[in-house]
Amino acid sequence: MEGFCKMCRVCDGRACGNTIPGPGAKGVGDTAIRNYDKWKEIRVNMDTICENRQPDTTLELFGKRFRFPVFAGPVGAVELHYGDRYDDLAYNNILIPAAREAGIAAFTGDGMNEQVMISACSVIGENDGFGIPTVKPWNAEMVAQKMELVRQSGSFAVAMDIDAAGLPFLKNFQPPAGSKSTKELTEIIREAGVPFIVKGVMTVAGARKAVEAGASAIVVSNHGGRVLDQCPATAEVLEQIADACGGAVKILVDGGIRSGVDIFKALALGADAVLIARPYVCAVYRQGAQGVSELTEQLGTELADTMAMCGAASLSEIRREMVFRG
């Protein structure tokens, strides 16, 4: 990964601001840094005066059962952004089955090269549909072509990273691509035929529009800081978005989440699960399938330990008062 990701001991965005192509963020990289920092400002409240029970970290979502409330986040064009050790087909061939073996699922990426989505859907199909393709907000014709690949894969859900509208190649795409009206999004969701996840929601208004369009879930996400500088951190807006949705959709969140303690904080603030992207890329590049397994086990162990020390024996028992914000 030399010349791309610097494999920092702490992936906090500070070493790779304004390095795109690469794993960095837009502009000065402020949003990626803020994503990481704001989770660290939230503390967890220890309470061990409770029944001694083994924490249950399992999650039920869209008819599937997962060991942990964690998903590997979508990354496309890995050769361009992370180094030529893998292309997208090779990367997905490792990540998707390894994630499944670890008891979670992987979102897959999309890009200008049609082979990115083709390879992702191919590997998902080979793994009995156990993956979530993420389609970018192309124009209607391109979205229809991508969604056909999704249907052929048999995936149990599909996502659209609506915030990718800020990426340069989408801004300059012809015919025009990018932002979608609620009406356009409604039509896309209606045609999907599987649970639809709208990724890239950062406001209560945006969440309500996603619900109106028929989304089954949203991802509170600012695209890792890659599309808009000086944006709020996901940790800063998650709580109000979750409260506004009131259970109408499942809530996922990403951005700077690096540990099982961070996962606990996200769930306490209203998320049902989290997405983690950059660390899973590093895990694949460093150790392949074993890296995916070890990272997932580490996150799950940290989450279970935090649950036990804060008095939550299941995900549903994680409550707002279990975190502290001074």
From TrEMBL:
FMN hydroxy acid dehydrogenase domain ranges (all copies): 1-326
Reaction(s) catalysed (UniProt annotation): (S)-lactate + O2 = pyruvate + H2O2
Annotated residues for binding of glyoxylate: H223, R226
One annotated GO molecular function: oxidoreductase activity
CDD domains: alpha_hydroxyacid_oxid_FMN
Active site, UniProt feature: H223
Residues given in the record as FMN binding sites: K199, S221, D254, G255, G256, I257, R258
Highest taxon above the source species: Bacteria
Sorted UniProt keywords: Flavoprotein, FMN, Oxidoreductase
Cofactors (names): FMN
Protein family: Belongs to the FMN-dependent alpha-hydroxy acid dehydrogenase family.
Descriptive protein name: L-lactate oxidase
Species of origin: Hornefia porci
